[in-house]
């Protein structure tokens, strides 16, 4: 655990200090599955196991997996032929799957099933010859993966302003899809602006912004309304964490900051602050939140109340490649033989 205590000073001028702790916060089902997939792959095949891109957008998680023997690469051509490679929770395009196969890699696909759902929608709408307006951040791995399912049919819409500019060939055959980790409110503004230009715009069959993103935004809206300061634990490249800062400011927090670690909390942020809201993005382990709470405790914020707006119990099974190998190992043990499918 990183040292957090002793850095922040208690400020006796401020009375009634308290913390409102948002729930749900932290790990979602897709992140949990992806991290466990890398750990299981390391256990089963031994180090190193390669991971294309950050398995989830959290520097602490990535560093811990590196310590256990994972090697993170940007592209599959950096992975030695025949090695095991895990695709991150954000998903990959078919071009990446093919490149891994051409290289003879043993790929383990840790794409979140809720991202895969959006991929399938893109494939289906492209097959029906729709033009797909994909609301999301250009350059984000998830957007690259989804767009790569139907590159000739997808146009990326980065923002509400982009919705006023985007051109389509046939306004009667247009559908919008979205990245899973966007601000719900901003996405709806983008959709409304698109619809004012293209009244026949089709909706996705179900919400693309995932349950975890939505739940964390609902919780921080409630907390922010009563908070002088909101601290969001999460990394700078974590889309849903960055959105939580924006949502907190929009819903009443006087100030909101994102930190990777407790030691990044600045003394001056606490000047005159009675109520601190705390939350964390979907890729953040709870230990990092506990360290922030410990730092706040040092500063006299000892009264912690959890504000829970939803229960979450969703869990995803491991990627099929690991399930298949597990079944192979069970069968081999039953026959008294060596495990099959063990790879390297
Ligand atoms: S944030 Fe949502 S889409 Fe992303 S991994 Fe978690 S559950 Fe899946």
From TrEMBL:
Q: Which residues form the active site?
A: 142
What cofactor does this chain's UniProt record say it requires? [4Fe-4S] cluster
Q: In which pathway does it act?
A: Isoprenoid biosynthesis; dimethylallyl diphosphate biosynthesis; dimethylallyl diphosphate from (2E)-4-hydroxy-3-methylbutenyl diphosphate: step 1/1; Isoprenoid biosynthesis; isopentenyl diphosphate biosynthesis via DXP pathway; isopentenyl diphosphate from 1-deoxy-D-xylulose 5-phosphate: step 6/6
Where does this protein hold (2E)-4-hydroxy-3-methylbut-2-enyl diphosphate? 57, 90, 140, 180, 238-240, 283
Cited InterPro entries: LytB/IspH, Rieske_2Fe-2S_sf
Q: Where is the composition biased (Basic and acidic residues)?
A: 324-333
Query: Bound how, and how many: what does the cofactor note say?
Result: Binds 1 [4Fe-4S] cluster per subunit.
List each coiled-coil range.
none
Q: What is this protein called?
A: 4-hydroxy-3-methylbut-2-enyl diphosphate reductase
Please give the organism: Microbacterium oxydans
